[in-house]
Amino acid sequence: MIVEQIWTANAYRNFNYLIACEETGEALAVDPLDHAKCLTKARQLGWEIRQIVNTHEHGDHTGGNHAIVAATGAKLLAHQGARDKIPGIDRGLVAGDVVRVGKTVEFEVLDTPGHTMSHVCLLAHIPGPALFCGDTMFNAGAGNCHNGGHPAALYETFANQLAKLPDETLVYPGHDYIANNLNFTLDREPDNARAANLLERVSHQDPNDALVTTLGLEREINVFLRLQNPRVIERLLEADPELANKKDPRRVFLALRSLRNRW
Predict the structure, then answer these.
(1) pLDDT band for position 94 (cuts 50, 70, 90)
(2) Which long-range contacts (CB under 8 A, 24 or more apart) does 5-12 make?
């Protein structure tokens, strides 16, 4: 599996992805908003885009669909529940589906509601676990739920799916928000040395060569995966004393998501 992370350099700081089979040159485009960059990169590498996956229905993830399909004839795949939101879906995806690219690349489809209620992530198991997570999870952060989502569903996705993936899972999100997210982690957990050191490293990184985190690293620096950390809970109690009577992970997650909305 060959992964090309494409930095769009737009105001939303989107990442697009091309994922190719090294034997056949067949490629999958994930959320190819910047269709010109995706098509150019595929042409430079000698790849043929055969499929598109939209992780969800928002325009900054679907906006390049028409141009990619017109140029390549690629088939469009997205959540089964997004058929009325994304025009031209050829294959509706449900949890457990398999998406194959060429001879060597295979993804398991995860149904991951929260950012929207029709959101999928793609999980590769070979050669090693890799998660293409759209706007569900970001480096050091979690998606918002403002436009068609729900924070309680996002918590269930984190707790029951993402948090159970192996430490070595590579994390490929839909946006480059890492510096701002690390600042939020440090606001919630000021003594998190790992987050502070990483913030110094990535504050001026070139998004064309962005750091790819692992889930093991995310467990150290992503406050939405640190729901039982005493310092995180202590800081939350300062803003919400009622949390003292109900400090379960779900309540902590929802409190963090609410604070992040206003932060």
Answers:
(1) very high
(2) 5/172, 5/210, 5/212, 6/34, 6/37, 6/38, 6/41, 7/176, 7/207, 7/208, 7/210, 8/33, 8/34, 8/37, 9/207, 10/34, 10/60, 12/60, 12/175
Q: How far apart are CA 200 and CA 163, in angstroms?
A: 26
**Count of other CB atoms within 10 angstroms of residue 141:** 22
List the strands of the sheet with 26-30, edge to edge: 2-7, 15-20, 26-30, 48-53, 75-79, 91-93
Phi/psi at 123 (5° precision): -120, 115
Quick one: CA dihedral 143, 144, 146, 151, positive or negative?
positive
Which letter does DSSP use for residue 71 in this model?
H
User: Which residue is it, tokens 């004839």?
Assistant: 73
Token pair 């494409």: residue: 6
In 3-state terms, what secondary structure has residue 190? coil
Cross-strand bridge partners of residue 26: 48
Whether residue 176 has pLDDT greater than 90: yes
- Dihedral, 40, 43, 47, 51 alpha carbons, nearest 10: 50
Determine whether 167 is exposed, middle or buried from the number of CB atoms within 10 Å of its CB (0-12, 13-18, 19+). exposed
Task: Return phi, psi of residue 259, to 5°.
Answer: -65, -40
pLDDT for 65 beyond 80: yes
CA 106 to chain centre: 18
Element (H, E) at 121: strand 120-124
- pLDDT for the residue numbered 70: 98
Residue 239's pLDDT is what? 78
- As given in the structure block, the two tokens for residue 82 are 């997004």
Q: Are 191 and 229 in contact (CB under 8 A)?
A: no
